Amino acid sequence: MANSALLLCTDMDGTVIPDGRHPEAPDARPAFAAFCAQPHVTLVYVTGRDRGLVQKAIAEFSLPLPDYAITDVGSMIYAVQDGAWTEWTAWNDELARDWAAMDGTGIARLFSEIPGLRLQEESKQNLHKVSFYFDAATNREHLRQTVEKQLADLNLRCNCIWSVDPVLGYGLLDLLPKGANKLLAIRFLQERLSVGQEDVVFAGDSGNDMQVFHSEIRSILVGNADEEVRQEAVEAVTQSGRSNLLYCARGFYAAGVLEGIRHYQPHERMEEGR
Ligand SMILES: [Mg+2]
């Protein structure tokens, strides 16, 4: 059976990039790269990393070059062709509509005043993303309420993405325009590329992938994901009657991604297990 087109959207850190907390099969990444090299596969990295850090990871972890990259937690989209990265300004225009009255610098200043929040490095900020660190020991519920009150007071429509860096142990908070997230960026790309729902698969491991896990997109949760994340994702799809759209892989990292693709598309050719 011939392979139909596949838009493979995958998170990077903790999904195809091992974080050292679980063993990685030695052939996991080479097999992933071989799979993605097939002409019917369009590879999209969907990540919190900025463009520079995506490129660094590709080199450092011998990952395949993507066809597209959705970076900065969904606030930027790049097309990658022959090693050249081109920003998709159509996505910037789309987001600018959402964040018309707001200015990233102003938001950074206002929210930096909240006790417990610390602005991330300049390279982590962009036109449509303001990012903070918080101490993992912080009372997260209290911090969340403070942030949400501030947003309501300022009448800002933002997506707040809360996650924890499992290696460094500190919390991460990204503030983005309502329309900027991994899910909406994937949908935008899918629409612009005229790719049908049945030809998309997403893989991820953590809190900032949750919106995609909750969505109508076929998703893979890699086996190394935290139990807390797995439970939340499973509960969400069970409640929405979409259990068939979440696959919890046993395999870790890239091996889990390939296992999930095999689950959704049993006819796909894999080079594992040679
Ligand atoms: Mg991740």
Q: Ends: how far apart? A: 21 Å
Q: Could you tell me the number of beta strands?
A: 12
* Domains, number: 2
CATH class bucket of the largest domain: Alpha Beta
What share of residues is helical? 25-40%
Task: Estimate the mean pLDDT confidence.
Answer: 91
**By helix and strand content, what is the structural category?**
alpha/beta
Main sheet: strand order: 5-4-3-2-1-10-11-12
Shape: globular
Q: Ligands in the structure?
A: magnesium ion
What share of the residues does DSSP label as strand, in percent?
Answer: 15-25%
CATH homology superfamily of the largest domain:
HAD superfamily/HAD-like
Q: Can you tell me the residue ranges where pLDDT is under 50 for at least 5 consecutive residues?
A: none
For the biggest sheet, the summary is: 8 strands, mixed
Gyration radius (Cα, Å) is 18 Å
Please name the CATH topology of the largest domain.
Answer: Rossmann fold
Number of helices: 9
The assigned CATH architecture of the largest domain is: 3-Layer(aba) Sandwich
Order of helices and strands: EHEHEEEHHEEHEEHEHEHEH
